[in-house]
Structure formats: C-alpha cells, structure tokens
Amino acid sequence: MVVEKDPVRDLQLHQVLHLNGGDGDNSYSNNSLLQKKVMLKAKPILQETILQLYGKSFPECITMADMGCSSGPNTFLPIWEVIEAIDETCRKLNRKPPILQVFLNDLPRNDFNSIFRSLPGFHKKLEEEMGGKSGPCFIAAMPGNFYGRLFPARSPHFVHSSYSLHWFSEVPRIPLNKGNIYLAKTSPPGVHKAYLDQFEKDFTAFLRSWSEEMIPGGCMVLTIYGRDENNDSSVKHSPTIWEFFGMMLNDMVLEGLIEESKLDSFNIPFYGTLAEEVRDVIQAEGSFTIKRLESFHVSWDASIDDRYRDTMDKYTKGKFVAKRMRAIMESILARHFGDEIVDVMFQRFSIKIGEYMETVNGAYNNHVVSMAKA
C-alpha cells in the first residue's frame, strides 16, 4: 500500500484550518446561510432535548457548551433556541427561569473578537423579544480542540455541536487516492478505511472526554455532515460536491495550472459518515444512550436566500455555492496549493457547479443525534 506524504499533516491541523473571519465577501459570516438552515432543521430535536433535561431536575443554573461555534450570525442561534425551550417550559409550569451559562468553543484561530463585538446586540435582542422574562444569560469563550478535555469533571448540563464533528483532529495517513481529494467512486478501499478509522478515533475521543466532563443525566445534540449509503448498482452514480471539486482540480492539472503531485498529496480532512457509523461508535464507547438519531437533506444551493433563488441564473447560483465552500476551505487550500491559485480555483468551480446544478439536484446529507449520559 502506497501512502503519500501530506505536507499539511505534519502541521497541527488547527494551525492551518480555520473559517474565513471578518465580514468580507468571502467571510464565513456572510456565507453561512446553509449552516443556519441545517440548525433550523435540527431545532425540534434540540428543543425537545432541553425540555426533557430541564424538566427532570429544574437546576438553578444550566451550563451549556457549544462545540465548533464559529463566528457570525449563526453563533448565537443555538443559545436562542435553548432559551426559547426553557422559557416555554417555565411558563407552562409557572417556574422562575434558570440562569444560563454558555461556553462557546472553537479552535483558537476562530474570530472570537467578532463574537465579543456582537454580544451587546444579542443581549439587547434578548431583552426586547423576551421582555426581561428569561433568566440571566452569561456567555464566555472556551478556545481549544474539542477532541480533548476542556472542562472540569461533571460541569456542563448540555452540549451542542452543529457541522463540526466531521472535521478531523489530524489528517490521517491516506493511501494514494490518485486524482481525488476525498472519497470518490474511483478511490481504493484503503482510502475509505483510513477515513473511517480516523472518524472512529476522533468521535470516540470526543465522547470519552464528555463522559468525564458532563454531569450524570446530561444531554447532547450533535448535527453531523454525513452521506447516504446506496448499494444499488443499477442507480447512476452522482458525485458528491467534493468529488466534483476534485474533478475540477484534475482539469487544472491537465492545463498545467496545478502540479499533479500537489493534487495527489491533498486529501480533505473530514469525513461524511453514515448514520449507522455514528450509532456504532456511540454504542461501542458506551457512555451515552441514544434518544433520537435522524437524517435529513439540504440542497447544495441552500446557501442562497429562498426569496431570490428562483430569479437567479445558473452562474449566479454557482457563485453562491462556491463562496460558501471558499469560506470554509480557503485556509487549507491556500496552505497546500498556494494563495495565488485560490481565486482561479473558485472562479472555475463557480462556473462548473452552476452548470452542473441545472441538471442535477445535489444535496448534503446530515445526521442529528440526541443522547443522554448513561
């Protein structure tokens, strides 16, 4: 088995992996509507979990951790959903709302400064819309890698994470995946095994850390980027968006814009898992009991405001999809291929993906799991 050396792997992944900060055209803040729609899809399960958690013991203070909070308009959305759920329960039971203590976690290079600048606006909105009836809400940052310990034992009541746990703690040693940057139809079996092994290792480490850190009976809601399993060989294969991006990079190799060795040594450091794989790791680790595990889809062009999607031509749609991907992938692509080629990559990708979406309705598969500490 040939294993190519990956220049990114020899760095700590958190040194090169970060979403685009600030509020510019290519920032995550301005290109995160798809992630918001994913959170809203998972909202009923989050709120159901909070109602069950609070209704069991009525703690005076609920401590919540949001793992992979990022920065931008989505950062406070899970907090808002938790506050709504608590408020509804307290009104029904005529109880005084508890204090909410929130720790926002992400890698140290996350744009926490933007979050801090947004806090006054969040508290003002909370006061205006809740009318001062919700309990006090204290928000702090907790930078660090969530695949290791971050909190004292038996501290948080509730843990939330959306679209973060598919990212690896490190780039695994992946066998030669010729012409691909991710799992593809042409990838050798060893490539899939390397990806799956790293996911199992990381997700197990995450669960083990929280088994020590979470209070007994504490709850967790995780939304994870995933994939569907299609074993029907009669169904035509449709590439994932990452497979499609790899095809575009192959074209750039043929035109001499990218070195072939550069392409062959690059593998995206995340894994779209199957729902069964999520279930298997949770059950094997043994610290948590699954309450619900469901899957849902959002379209590739969900990054476009629904009010304007139908009026856009294919190239404008392609630009929105490309900007969303750039907001999350630019740092690692620039580190591997060079800053000077990134603009060209996404200009070409926006055209190709816009044309492709005219005939194919691509979608991301997602899994949301609610569980309680056993």
Automatic annotation (TrEMBL):
UniProt source species: Populus euphratica
Species lineage: Eukaryota, Viridiplantae, Streptophyta, Embryophyta, Tracheophyta
Record bears the keyword Nucleotide-binding: no
GO-annotated biological processes: methylation
UniProt keyword terms in alphabetical order: Magnesium, Metal-binding, Methyltransferase, Transferase
Keyword Methyltransferase in record: yes
Family annotation (InterPro entries): MeTrfase_7 (IPR005299), MeTrfase_capping (IPR042086), SAM-dependent_MTases_sf (IPR029063)
Full protein name: Probable caffeine synthase 3
One matching Pfam family: Methyltransf_7
GO molecular-function term, one example from the UniProt record: metal ion binding
Gene3D superfamilies the record matches: Methyltransferase, alpha-helical capping domain, Vaccinia Virus protein VP39
Domain of life: Eukaryota
